[in-house]
Amino acid sequence: MRLPAAIASLVFSAPAFASDAVRGNEATFTSPNGVTERCVRIAKMPGADYSNGDVEDEEAYCAIDFYDAGVALCPKTWSTSPGTMIYDISEGSYANDRAAFERNACHEGKSAKDLAADELAKFKMTMNASGTSGTYAPSSLVYYHLSRFLDTSVEVPVAVWRSMDAAAHRSEVSERGLAMTGSAQRMNHEGWRHLINAEANPASYVPTDDIMTLDRMQVYGVLLLSPGHRYGSEINGTRKSGWGAGQNRDFQETPAYRALRTDAPLPEAITTGLEGATRDRQIRKDLGDQGTPQQMVFWMRELSEIVLMDFIMSQQDRVGNIDFTPYWYWLEEGKAKHKKAKHHEPGDGDVPEGAILLRRTNLNDNDAGGRVAYANFAKTTEMLQKLRHFDGGVYRRLLALNTDLQKQGPIYEWLSVSIGLKDAEVRQFVNNTSLATGILQDNCRAGRLRFDLNPTRFFETGDADEDEVDCG
Asked: Which residue ranges make up each domain of the chain?
């Protein structure tokens, strides 16, 4: 249940040391303690293209009143980082009984959503204290807007900025989260422990500005949803070499990435990528019958975009966190049509006979980038240097992004004042963009980069021709 926001206005907050200095369209809510909370739809990145669906999702997130009787809050007790799951309970067995849902249903973990009318959003905050997995809320905001500027094929979820009364969050969510976790969820449990301490004593978390608003009365983070199913080793890699650089090199042995680093025309690169990767028994099993040429071109395009954004963002925790949504694809009068799959088998509603099932990639887990302290595994394992296939449109937009940042143009201004990034984080984004541009330009000028990743055209015509692109 998404309720009308209390107040809407365009906010132009002056830059400050705290990371709650963000710009955009603001909605405000009042907690039972009388604290004014904010939800901010971050100002649009200059030159980015946002869909009607993006705008609708932003508006819906910033219309959620955390204290409405038809809304319930549960601690996220799975995976490695704490968060708050927000459910619509306006209907069903717990209709408008917030206390009962939070007392009983939250203990069901992921299955709590089955007892609600809908899952509205996830509220994720920064957490980088000792013993935790490492998350940074502004990272999800930058990924969202950057993906719209680059016009990526991979789907990155909409994200908005949100604050919440710290005392209310502590009593209703954090204390439950700590009680519901233990040694089996060690990093998640530690996250709740540090968060509870910070909500009671903000100075206990350093830097305090990363999780508390400047008035020290609210915690803040992002609202988003993360749809999709987790890929196996066919995309995420075997991860047999352990966390860090090892599993990032394992990732480069997957079928699509092997194809990306094969210096050959697209059809030959696809064959080479599949043959090399499926020598690994686990990858062969997880891939199954998915390795069609049409699927491979989509995967190659999506992985090339992931590598680029992760390089720019200094992402340290991508491998193992790539998801997908299944879609039916077919041709009508020579044009590709698609529809989200309800069932993973033929006969799905009005999908025509002959439609094929393709997995489209969701880049959901984007909260381990942006911080200077994070390890940039796309950079240290030279992922960009190895690319031999890319999309011409994404390449051109990267050049435009880099030109603006170097000239400190409108995008640079937006990045500096809209997201709440620190100066060092802005510099890192600028420097990484410059490095990424230089790497791909060098490959382009040396004739090592083929601009042939147009999966829709390939699906429609089988055309693997390379586009003519000015290296810049």
From this structure: 7-224, 229-461
